[in-house]
Amino acid sequence: MTTAFVGDTAALTGRSLKHITRSLDTIITTAIMPIAMMLLFVYVLGGAIETGTTSYIDYMLPGILLITIASGIAYTALRLFNDLKGGIFERFQSMPIARSAALWAHVLTSLVANAIALVIVTAVAFAMGFRTGAGIGAWLAVIGILLLVTLALTWVAVVAGLVAKTPDGAGAFSYPLIFLPFISSAFVPTASMPGPVQWFAEYQPMTSIVNTLRALFEGAPVLSDIWIALAWIVGILVAAYIAAIAVYRRRMG
């Protein structure tokens, strides 16, 4: 059973990746908005924002990377929605294919597509002056956290793709996720925010993730932020996965 699942998932992932290679504009589009934000904040607004001794591009990059992921998973929901409307899943149901393989194919494709977009955005950040004191271990931790965030939010995208009624609805769920880093420590210190906004910013998941990534990039101790971040990420991943499988079984059963 496990061997069949792995083989079916690999075959369907290959199919999804072929769609990605034929429409590389989706990856480019995913990277363009975060890059535009970096240019705007660093060269227009950054001089008015006080972040201490840290250069602003170094300060804001973790938030930009999270926005890149939030932008990219919208296409996952849209691709899943199009497959459902196109009757592909019904055809899969009539074939001897593991039921969840089709969902995992979209998830793995999302990981690949978002990884490419993250590399592009990070490369532009280096060109803009981003510098890091992270060693190999810290870089591996950054990569691991970004992959976990992508995996968790991709399963949220799967739920959205399964329940959406229109293509616009399939992608619209990502707007709050794109907006959430703006009400966190991603672009300005939370201490500069008014009381209720500061409370929300300090306790929502993006802040602990941003703080962890920033500390890793700086080569500084991550303290308790990494455990809070991991708790949020794993919690979202588990909840979204359970919800996605339940919705999928109900819809296809």
From TrEMBL:
Biological process terms in GO annotation: response to antibiotic
Keywords attached to this entry: Antibiotic resistance, Cell membrane, Membrane, Transmembrane, Transmembrane helix, Transport
Claim: Transmembrane helix is one of the keywords in the record: yes
MF (Gene Ontology): ABC-type transporter activity
Transmembrane segments: 27-49, 61-81, 102-130, 136-163, 170-188, 226-248
Residues covered by the ABC transmembrane type-2 domain: 25-251
Keyword Amino-acid biosynthesis: no
GO cellular component, one term: ATP-binding cassette (ABC) transporter complex
Record-linked PROSITE patterns: ABC_TM2
Location (main, coarse): membrane
Subcellular location: Cell membrane; Membrane
Protein name: Transport permease protein
UniProt membrane topology term: Multi-pass membrane protein
Family, per entry: Belongs to the ABC-2 integral membrane protein family.
